Amino acid sequence: MIRMLALLPLIFCLNVQVGAQNPSVEDIVFEGIVERIAPDSGVVSGNLAVYRLSQYRVRQVCKGRYRGSRIVVDHLILTGKELEEIKVGDQVCVSVKRSNKILARFNSNGIRRPTERVNIFYIAGKVDVTSISDCRCCEN
């Protein structure tokens, strides 16, 4: 119960953040290969939003538009288990929301530098691990 109460300010902020997104920009669903995952800090969101970064090589865009061959995604960490099932080299299907703002900016060596300007943040939704022989990401 106490943990849920601690999350209330974060949930309120998430609702505010969604309103800050550009509604004319589509969400994105893509199939990609995990290239890098930031180290687990061991901290979960509470009074402060905690994100963990990952970088993907984009193989195919299933929904929306994205022109790059790589994408850095901010995963909001609520339980600490959000990225538990993925590892570098996995093929995954990822949904993201574009936002020009984020609750708390996180950086990670080799993924995002503190000095790097970010115009659009890609905030993770669902991440599904797929196998190369049975990838159905873009068929759903």
Structure in words:
- With 140 residues, this protein is mainly beta.
- The chain has one domain (2-133): OB fold (Dihydrolipoamide Acetyltransferase, E2P), CATH 2.40.50.
- It has one helix at 2-20, and strands at 28-37, 51-63, 70-76, 91-99, 121-130.
- A five-stranded antiparallel β-sheet has the order 3-2-1-4-5.
- A hairpin with a 6-residue loop joins strand 2 and strand 3.
- The longest helix has 19 residues, at 2-20.
- It is globular.
- The model is unreliable at 1-24 (pLDDT under 50).
Explain briefly what this protein structure is.
It is built from one helix and five strands, in the order αβββββ. The protein is mostly beta strands and 140 residues long.
Spell out the key features of this protein.
about 35% strand; OB fold (Dihydrolipoamide Acetyltransferase, E2P); 1 helix
Map the helices and strands:
Blueprint lengths: L1 H19 L7 E10 L13 E13 L6 E7 L14 E9 L21 E10 L10
Antiparallel strand pairs: 1-2, 1-4, 2-3, 4-5
Bin the helical content.
Answer: 10-25%
Whole-Å distance between the termini?
Answer: 37 Å
Assembly state here? single chain
Q: Total strand count, please? A: 5
Parts with pLDDT < 50 across at least 5 consecutive residues: 1-24
